[in-house]
Design goal:
By secondary structure, the chain is mainly alpha-helical. It is about 75% helix and about 0% strand. The chain contains 25 helices and no strands. α8 crosses α13. The longest helix has 30 residues.
Amino acid sequence: MSETLENPKPAEADSSGIHPFIKKTSDFSDRLSPMLVKELRQGLKGISFMILFIAIQVILGILILGHSFSSSYNDAGKDISTSVFICIGLATCVLQPLRAISAIGSEVKEDTIDLMVITRLSAWRIVFGKWISLVSQSALIIAAVAPYLILRYFFGGMQLFAELMILFTIFLASAGFTAFFVGLSSLPSLILRGIIGLGCAFFIGMGVVALFASPYMYRDVVQLCSFEMEGTIYAYLLLALAMAYVAWLALDYAAGTIAPISENRSTPRRLICLGIAAVLFILFWLGPEFIQRAAPIFMLLLSIPIGIITLTEHPFTTATVSVPFLKKNMLGKIASYFLYPGWASGLNFVMILFGLTILSSQFHNPTYAYSYYDSSYQQEMITACSICFSCLVFPLLLARIFFKNTLQLFVFYLGGLVASGVLWLLVVVIAEETRSRGIYILFSWLPPVQFNLFDRNVTEALAHGIALPTFFIYWLGCLATSGKFWKHIRNNDVQAEAIIEDEKNLTASTENN
């Protein structure tokens, strides 16, 4: 017995040949989300990640070896930096997000999403787990490639802080693009996902190559990330916040598509956006002049993404969604006209955003005119904002007129958006080839064409006159087609009142007992 205590028998490896201690410590912690653990295990073992991980190592090794034997040794350090950034950018901002193109769609197709939803995992945790898994894999790729920048240090001329910030910026951009593609993966149409995904990946890849391959643009990127020039840190923070905002909306949209109809994700989303707008208004009020001058642009950047999502929400819900609104009495009933899930109330919410955007133009009051017709800054901002919001509402009107019974409103909304864009390009080409400006007036009912009228001195007054009425006409047209959905909402309110009454009776009986 004493010999056994003094010389304990070592643990033996199991049938797999792995020591129990190593097997225990190499596994994921129980504190991590089960969705994250599942996606990480599948992702790290996937052939696509392994090929990408090995290929980028081989490509960078060959490129750095070639640059080290280059005749222009003085430029070798800069060439190595651009090669590393291009490879990392293409791998993490193009290829990694493309792996997310079927993140939600594949689960829906294989009927595994229902099994996840009935567990304690919420729709948000499912989507967030898929996103954070892909972002973690991108971080692993960047961490594995970062040592190549150490080799670049020996060639001289390295701006350490700026190049490390570029590396960090690529990671942030990769996280944002991955979130966008995860949101895109929730679209029901595989063809639409493929067209939009490949198109976005192509333009992102071209942008990555252009940023780092061009000496002038690379210099601008270094200046931005070095924070040496005045105002660059504010520009960097604004870009990061804009990316985070779009990423959150994309993930929340994906969560909304797989969530049960009894789960209300629309109201918190809209309230958060109104909170962001309130913060922006405080910045507009207290900020310097250039912030006040750009206030309508910030509001448009806030309104356009949430506007597209709000105008394409599913209009049918359950009575349980109405219960929280009715419990707030009159205030809740008024709020339901703007915050209730569905595109019908989304129209009213978009009108709030439109009013806030117009109001933001009042923070800047220049003493000089911007056009030959002495139109004020406020008038120009009202016209520009009206055209932008008309571009948002017009595709919904097309979808409601030609596909009023569809349940895939987002797909047909995008179709209307693309159709109006293609028609606008045709009008521009014909007008420029024939040198006929009258065609712009003929197609002035098309919202993008109003930008061409607004851009020309001869027709600028016409654009001021028709932009705002056009938006209200299209908005009222959409509102006229929403009667059936408001009737559905009021029927839900009646059922919700019965639910509230049953809850009161149950509470009273419980207290009496």
